[in-house]
Design a protein that fits this description.
By secondary structure, the chain is an alpha/beta fold. 34% of the residues lie in helices and 9% in strands. A hairpin with a 3-residue loop joins β4 and β5. The protein starts with a helix and ends in a 24-residue tail after the last helix.
């Protein structure tokens, strides 16, 4: 709660610089994608505003939480492009859709061009991919901005044949991710970094992956809605798996 309370103050200060009487701005701690899309479309905020706010928030709290492994250095450039596209679309009467210009964090076992793809392992630092995960391609096509990569249980917790209980939420790259509400509590599940990040307002939404509880359990611990799709409904291309079954 200490992290969340301190965060609320900084969000209020940020919004105080942008709020207008005709378009009151919600706290990004609780704002939904629909809320942000409406604000972007109305011109009350820009995608550059959003990315800047989230970067500031990550810098403020992540030394304590270890939820985000790294931010995307190209996110501001993508945000500026999204803002320009939005202006052009408004002039032409086009609708860009609800994800356009929305920042999203990505679990670090999902391949992207802009960041490392480590699954939490130091042996993968510096790794580059020939193509991005299909999930990322579709997000970019929808206009989403890749904000960065989230911490995870190293290799999704499958580091050894023994007891993996001590590795939940820990990776050699990011250290131990801390839960959003209770100091020193495990974030639970390999997608813990994604869940904690959303819960404390480091992004409005994040991608995780699940074989057995890795989305559902962190969502429960972080007071979130987590969606685990039926296998085959979303592409697994470009995702480091535990098993294909």
């Amino acid at each position: 709660m200490r992290v969340r309370s301190g965060l609320l103050l900084s969000l209020a200060l940020f919004f105080g610089r942008h709020a207008t009487a005709s378009a009151p701005l919600p706290s990004l701690l609780d704002a939904t994608i629909a809320d942000l899309a409406e604000l972007l479309e109305s011109g009350a905020i820009t995608s550059v505003d959003l990315v800047t706010a989230y970067f500031s928030r990550i810098a403020e709290v992540d030394d304590e939480l270890h939820a985000v492994l790294e931010v995307n250095a190209k996110a501001l450039e993508a945000a500026r492009s999204a803002d320009e596209e939005r202006v052009s679309a408004m002039r032409g009467g086009a609708n860009l859709g609800p994800f356009h210009g929305i920042p999203i964090l990505i679990k670090d076992n999902i391949a992207t061009f802009d960041n490392n793809n480590t699954a939490g392992s130091v042996c993968m630092v510096g790794s580059k991919v020939k193509s991005e995960a299909t999930l990322i391609t579709k997000l970019r096509q929808a206009g989403a901005i890749i904000l960065g990569k989230t911490n995870m249980s190293e290799w999704a917790g499958a580091r050894s044949n023994g007891d993996n209980s001590t590795t939940i939420g820990w990776s050699a790259v990011g250290g131990e991710c801390r839960a959003a509400y209770v100091p020193d509590q495990s974030p639970s599940g390999s997608s813990g970094g994604s869940a904690v990040a959303v819960s404390v307002g480091l992004a409005p939404v994040a991608l995780g992956t699940e074989t057995d509880g890795s989305i559902i359990s962190p969502s429960e611990h972080s007071n979130l809605v987590g969606i685990k799709p039926t296998m085959g409904l979303t592409s697994r291309y470009g995702v480091i798996p535990i098993t294909h079954r």
